[in-house]
Amino acid sequence: MTHPFVEHGGFPATRLSVLEGVRSANGGEQQRALDRLCEAYWRPVYKYVRLRWNCEVEDAQDLTQGFFVELLERQLLNRFDPAKSRLRTFLRLCVDSFVMNEDKATRRQKRGGGIPARALDFSGVEEELGGRTIDPATLASPESLEAFFAKEWIRGLFALAVEDLRLLSVEQGRTLTFRLFEQYDLSEDDDISYEQLAGQHNVAVTEVTNALARARREFRKIALSRLREICGSDEEFERESKAVFGWELR
Q: Cα–Cα distance between 221 and 247 in angstroms, integer?
């Protein structure tokens, strides 16, 4: 089975943009696109609501769930123009508008009104937050709000790409490749060396070198494929690639 993010030959798969999907007349395609959008954005949206709007956990969960329902019900993405802004900036501003127009009574009604909730790992995100709070005044400027949301969006994108890489490695029978990538590139241990990894896994240093090079290539392809899917245009994809990886595509 070919992994959904890598075409034969190792190039990123061309995938339908979530914007095309959400705007589709096909209900199933709409739902799949919304699922992909939610997968990419629910973590930064939740953290943003928690910290920017100083919401309690339950309220932030309700707002996050409700925001993605509203995206589809009110067809908010039909208003997005990639020539004027980034999709992530547009969504962040939509979140602000949504939160300002919601109240607790409305959220309680929705919670008991039969709207199916998504299975989102809020507890895992709370662990990432570590109970920290941010004074909303420190996020008052558009620049600081954009920087915070962008940082969490990139963190979420990379987390999804890492999980895709893990699944691909299992599928291809290369679990050691992922394990080496996890130990060297994802670990907070700055002192670990290729030689140490080779000794731990009883392989040659050249095998460690080759495995890490392969894992990094696959990770880049997967991350770029996910990124392309959630961009509104080729131009936005180029800009976001530079924002995420720090360089322009060639």
A: 14
pLDDT at site 247:
59
Each residue's pLDDT tens digit, 162-218:
999 999 999 999 999 999 999 999 998 889 999 999 999 999 999 999 999 999 999
Global pTM reads 0.82
Tell me how far apart the alpha carbons of residues 82 and 173 are, in angstroms, rounded to a whole number.
40
Q: What is the pLDDT of residues 92-143, one digit of tens each?
A: 999 999 999 987 656 555 544 444 567 788 888 888 887 555 565 666 677 8
Residue with tokens 């802004």: 85
Q: Which string of DSSP letters, residue by residue, matches the chain?
A: ---TTB-TTSPBPP---HHHHHT-S-HHHHHHHHHHHHHHHHHHHHHHHHHHTT--HHHHHHHHHHHHHHHHHTTGGGG--TTTS-HHHHHHHHHHHHHHH--HHHHHHHHTTTPPPP---HHHHHHHHTT----GGGG-SHHHHHHHHHHHHHHHHHHHHHHHHHHHHHHTT-HHHHHHHHHHTS-S-TT--HHHHHHHHT--HHHHHHHHHHHHHHHHHHHHHHHHHT-SSHHHHHHHHHHHHSS---
